[in-house]
């Protein structure tokens, strides 16, 4: 199995897609494993010509576990920089969701030459945007870890319901949660990641130094991270565009995959090193103002070489 020893962690990763494709790194959120990226969403990205890099962050999945170690999101970003060094990949397009978006922002701040473009999905520059005043959300973050398979699966189903999965299908989620549990279950790792997330300082003062094209996607009905967190990142990053979707929670819902893939592809094409990169053919690369009954509340672009303001 493919592992990379970064010096600080041993990361499990998977590469898929054409060797000549533009490398696109997917960074998952709190406690999530790489199999949590929906196959249909990944396939849509592959059809755009990307070469995907999927990873298990430290303390999740098949990557190394770090009991007794307190670490930060900066350490997790450095893990990824080390992975790219091992793979001899000079730079990548980055898509990060939730906590993965915060790690992506830190990677862009601390290793700007590694990041050609950045896409942040329901993320924020500051853990203050976590909606911990919501009793269900706080209970989710503070819950005692399950100690058996059935309890762990029940917890996973509850978290998906809170996340606002549109068209919630409990049977499918139960099957998926079982696969997650059977692959690797590390509740202590979740707690360590949660502490790293909560201790992250506000990144807003550093984000204005970023120069890579950035797309920010957020759901107005997100119950875990306020959509105002997405707005804050977009306002702070000079070369950014913002997409706020009504009736979208803390999930990459299938009805919006096509729209998100267009946003990611066009944003990648704006990167200077990607001037010859043309995402796969299909519908217009312009994002939809409305998609599958989930209209975009707003689509805003700021600055950049394309001249939109």
From TrEMBL:
Gene3D superfamilies: alpha/beta hydrolase. It comes from the Bacteria. InterPro entries: AB_hydrolase, AB_hydrolase_1, AB_hydrolase_fold. GO terms for biological process: glycerolipid catabolic process. Pfam families: Abhydrolase_1 (PF00561). The keyword Hydrolase applies. Keywords: Hydrolase. Residues 299-309 have a biased composition (Basic and acidic residues). Residues 272-309 are annotated as: Disordered. Residues 23-252 form the AB hydrolase-1 domain. The keyword Transferase does not apply. GO terms for molecular function: triacylglycerol lipase activity. This is Hydrolase. It comes from Arthrobacter crystallopoietes BAB-32.
């Amino acid at each position: 199995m493919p592992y990379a020893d970064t010096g600080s962690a041993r990361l499990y990763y998977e590469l898929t897609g054409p060797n000549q494709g533009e490398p696109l790194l997917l960074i998952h959120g709190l406690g999530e494993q790489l199999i949590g990226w929906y196959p249909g969403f990944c396939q849509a990205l592959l059809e755009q010509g990307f070469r995907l890099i999927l990873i298990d962050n430290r303390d999740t999945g098949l990557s190394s576990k770090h009991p007794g170690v307190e670490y930060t999101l900066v350490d997790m970003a450095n893990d990824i920089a080390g992975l790219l060094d091992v793979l001899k990949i000079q730079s990548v397009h980055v898509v990060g969701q939730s906590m993965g978006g915060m790690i992506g922002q830190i990677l862009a701040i601390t290793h700007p030459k590694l990041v050609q473009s950045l896409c942040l999905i329901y993320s924020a520059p500051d853990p203050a945007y976590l909606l911990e005043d919501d009793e269900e959300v706080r209970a989710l973050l503070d819950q005692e870890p399950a100690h058996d398979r059935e309890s762990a699966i029940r917890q996973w189903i509850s978290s998906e319901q809170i996340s606002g999965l549109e068209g919630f299908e409990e049977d499918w989620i139960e099957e998926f949660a079982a696969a997650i549990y059977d692959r690797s279950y590390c509740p202590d790792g979740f707690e360590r990641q949660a502490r790293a997330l909560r201790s992250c300082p506000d990144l807003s003062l550093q984000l204005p130094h970023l120069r890579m094209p950035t797309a920010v996607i957020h759901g107005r009905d997100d119950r875990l991270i306020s959509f105002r967190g997405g707005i804050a990142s977009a306002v702070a990053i000079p070369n950014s565009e913002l997409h706020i979707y009504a009736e979208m929670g803390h999930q990459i819902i299938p009805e919006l995959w096509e729209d998100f893939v267009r946003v990611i592809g066009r944003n990648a094409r704006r990167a200077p090193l990607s001037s010859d990169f043309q995402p796969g053919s299909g519908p217009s690369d312009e994002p939809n103002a409305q998609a599958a009954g989930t209209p975009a509340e707003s689509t805003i672009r700021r600055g950049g070489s394309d001249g939109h303001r």
